[in-house]
């Protein structure tokens, strides 16, 4: 297999300034709805990038759970690698790779912890098995085997067999407050359309086209 021979043209659509909403959140919601309507697998999946104390970036895929003018919301174990890295450096990047639509959205911003009430509301809305999995997993930490994980899961299942499952004290969420959002649409001959929204000092969004 020759990797340098793997290529294709991007011909699905083009993107102009006239097609873009002045508000990038409105534009994002429009594209997200189109991704949902196109029956893409996991349209809310996003790559979350954080940086540790040594400047080493790390990435993982997380599901977007809410978006509005306040920002982009996701939830996680607060003992996880991403949560620990955000403690030291709350700068974050989100990447939505909608390959089948030949589109990408990249968000640059800062992650702010959500209040406990918001975290509890989401946690209690999850399927019971997902709630149990949150209790069972010491996310990002070593474990001896899959069997050990399942033993802990079954133990939690027995422990919380009756009544509601409480919110773990190690479960939290973040709202990513964006200051830059890029919209990318694939184009022929690698002449892609890229537009960057930047928030100015007055809090208004400015838009400019970028070279591909």
From TrEMBL:
<feature type="binding site">
    <location>
        <position position="184"/>
    </location>
    <ligand>
        <name>FMN</name>
    </ligand>
</feature>
<keyword id="KW-0664">Pyridoxine biosynthesis</keyword>
<comment type="pathway">
    <text>Cofactor metabolism; pyridoxal 5'-phosphate salvage; pyridoxal 5'-phosphate from pyridoxamine 5'-phosphate: step 1/1.</text>
</comment>
<dbReference type="Pfam" id="PF10590">
    <property type="entry name" value="PNP_phzG_C"/>
</dbReference>
<feature type="binding site">
    <location>
        <begin position="139"/>
        <end position="140"/>
    </location>
    <ligand>
        <name>FMN</name>
    </ligand>
</feature>
<comment type="pathway">
    <text>Cofactor metabolism; pyridoxal 5'-phosphate salvage; pyridoxal 5'-phosphate from pyridoxine 5'-phosphate: step 1/1.</text>
</comment>
<feature type="binding site">
    <location>
        <position position="194"/>
    </location>
    <ligand>
        <name>FMN</name>
    </ligand>
</feature>
<feature type="binding site">
    <location>
        <position position="82"/>
    </location>
    <ligand>
        <name>FMN</name>
    </ligand>
</feature>
<dbReference type="InterPro" id="IPR012349">
    <property type="entry name" value="Split_barrel_FMN-bd"/>
</dbReference>
<comment type="function">
    <text>Catalyzes the oxidation of either pyridoxine 5'-phosphate (PNP) or pyridoxamine 5'-phosphate (PMP) into pyridoxal 5'-phosphate (PLP).</text>
</comment>
<dbReference type="InterPro" id="IPR011576">
    <property type="entry name" value="Pyridox_Oxase_N"/>
</dbReference>
<feature type="binding site">
    <location>
        <position position="126"/>
    </location>
    <ligand>
        <name>substrate</name>
    </ligand>
</feature>
<feature type="binding site">
    <location>
        <position position="122"/>
    </location>
    <ligand>
        <name>substrate</name>
    </ligand>
</feature>
<feature type="binding site">
    <location>
        <begin position="60"/>
        <end position="65"/>
    </location>
    <ligand>
        <name>FMN</name>
    </ligand>
</feature>
<feature type="binding site">
    <location>
        <position position="81"/>
    </location>
    <ligand>
        <name>FMN</name>
    </ligand>
</feature>
<feature type="domain" description="Pyridoxamine 5'-phosphate oxidase N-terminal">
    <location>
        <begin position="33"/>
        <end position="154"/>
    </location>
</feature>
<feature type="binding site">
    <location>
        <position position="130"/>
    </location>
    <ligand>
        <name>substrate</name>
    </ligand>
</feature>
<dbReference type="GO" id="GO:0004733">
    <property type="term" value="F:pyridoxamine phosphate oxidase activity"/>
</dbReference>
<protein>
    <recommendedName>
        <fullName>Pyridoxine/pyridoxamine 5'-phosphate oxidase</fullName>
        <ecNumber>1.4.3.5</ecNumber>
    </recommendedName>
</protein>
<comment type="subunit">
    <text>Homodimer.</text>
</comment>
<dbReference type="GO" id="GO:0008615">
    <property type="term" value="P:pyridoxine biosynthetic process"/>
</dbReference>
<dbReference type="InterPro" id="IPR019740">
    <property type="entry name" value="Pyridox_Oxase_CS"/>
</dbReference>
<feature type="binding site">
    <location>
        <position position="65"/>
    </location>
    <ligand>
        <name>substrate</name>
    </ligand>
</feature>
<comment type="similarity">
    <text>Belongs to the pyridoxamine 5'-phosphate oxidase family.</text>
</comment>
<feature type="domain" description="Pyridoxine 5'-phosphate oxidase dimerisation C-terminal">
    <location>
        <begin position="171"/>
        <end position="212"/>
    </location>
</feature>
<dbReference type="InterPro" id="IPR019576">
    <property type="entry name" value="Pyridoxamine_oxidase_dimer_C"/>
</dbReference>
<feature type="binding site">
    <location>
        <begin position="190"/>
        <end position="192"/>
    </location>
    <ligand>
        <name>substrate</name>
    </ligand>
</feature>
<dbReference type="GO" id="GO:0010181">
    <property type="term" value="F:FMN binding"/>
</dbReference>
<dbReference type="Pfam" id="PF01243">
    <property type="entry name" value="PNPOx_N"/>
</dbReference>
<feature type="binding site">
    <location>
        <begin position="75"/>
        <end position="76"/>
    </location>
    <ligand>
        <name>FMN</name>
    </ligand>
</feature>
<keyword id="KW-0560">Oxidoreductase</keyword>
<keyword id="KW-0288">FMN</keyword>
<dbReference type="InterPro" id="IPR000659">
    <property type="entry name" value="Pyridox_Oxase"/>
</dbReference>
<keyword id="KW-0285">Flavoprotein</keyword>
<feature type="binding site">
    <location>
        <begin position="7"/>
        <end position="10"/>
    </location>
    <ligand>
        <name>substrate</name>
    </ligand>
</feature>
<feature type="binding site">
    <location>
        <position position="104"/>
    </location>
    <ligand>
        <name>FMN</name>
    </ligand>
</feature>
């Amino acid at each position: 297999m020759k990797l340098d021979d793997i290529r294709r043209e991007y011909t699905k659509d083009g993107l102009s300034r006239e097609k873009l909403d002045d508000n990038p959140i409105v534009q994002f919601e429009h594209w997200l709805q189109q991704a949902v309507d196109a029956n893409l697998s996991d349209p809310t999946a996003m790559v979350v990038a954080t940086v540790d104390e040594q400047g080493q970036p790390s990435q993982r895929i997380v599901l977007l759970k809410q978006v509005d003018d306040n920002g982009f919301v996701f939830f996680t174990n607060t003992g996880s690698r991403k949560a620990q890295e955000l403690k030291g450096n709350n700068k974050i990047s989100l990447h939505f790779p909608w390959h089948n639509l030949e589109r990408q959205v990249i968000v640059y911003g800062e992650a702010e912890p959500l209040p406990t009430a918001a975290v509890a509301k989401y946690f209690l809305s999850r399927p019971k098995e997902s709630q149990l999995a949150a209790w069972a997993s010491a996310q990002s930490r070593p474990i001896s085997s899959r069997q050990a994980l399942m033993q802990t899961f079954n133990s939690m299942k027995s422990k919380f067999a009756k009544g509601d499952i409480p919110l773990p004290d190690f479960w939290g969420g973040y709202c990513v407050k964006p200051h830059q959002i890029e919209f990318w649409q694939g184009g022929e001959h690698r002449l892609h359309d890229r537009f960057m929204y930047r928030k100015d000092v007055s809090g208004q969004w400015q838009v400019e086209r970028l070279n591909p």
